[in-house]
């Protein structure tokens, strides 16, 4: 039985919409919950697993030298969690961190603050370029910067810091690996037109989606699906992989992505708070 416009409106701006979520297993639950709160039906298709590096010696060496760094910069919540877990594992407390701490995005900052760390800089744009703009007047050539990040992280930030005369140490505190266990079921749902939209929250989710679905992809099989990306970098990756992107968030957060999706799918006539 189809719902009337009034019923859809009262049920939530995503009522009647089936949204596929492509995130790491550890991150899927939050986004699924937000979609369901907006009245939508969420289908979790976790494509990524975060794992600690097999050889932690590079991270351990950086931890041993923590007191020598002027800046400690985190670009993701995962980077915070894996780095601090490794610190605890080797018996190092956060009191060893004397550096100024910077975070890309409010969620990364919140993860640091939850651990008792004060965050000196949070950019208004939640990408590396925004952080560089926010930091620019505070960076001094010769300062030492530690960047705990993923093995597949973009190189924009460290390259620009080096260009500005800083000494940059990058350490891979976690690796992102593909998790395609649910690919056959996800492909079946798309082929059966059971999915209205697919959310991509990073470039890595896009590339892993394309890899995982390669055995099942057919010409035009995504034509009826709204492809939504958390920002322009993710959207560019999607387009390079042959996906037609209809939605790009203007605020590069989960909330911004959902707001943009609602506007595209037409369920939000009077505005909504996410």
How would you portray this structure in words?
- It is a single chain.
- The chain is an alpha/beta fold.
- The chain folds into two domains: 7-47 and 179-265, Rossmann fold (3-Layer(aba) Sandwich), CATH 3.40.50.10090; 51-177, Rossmann fold (3-Layer(aba) Sandwich), CATH 3.40.50.10090.
- Helix content is 39%, strand content 19%.
- It has helices at 5-11, 25-37, 57-64, 77-89, 106-114, 128-135, 156-163, 183-191, 203-213, 232-240, 254-265, and strands at 18-22, 41-44, 48-51, 71-74, 100-103, 144-150, 167-178, 197-200, 226-229, 245-248.
- Strand 4, helix 4 (77-89) and strand 5 form a beta-alpha-beta unit.
- The longest helix is centred in the first third of the chain and has 13 residues, at 25-37.
- The protein starts with a helix and ends in a 9-residue tail after the last helix.
- Mean pLDDT is 88; it is low at 1-9 and 268-273.
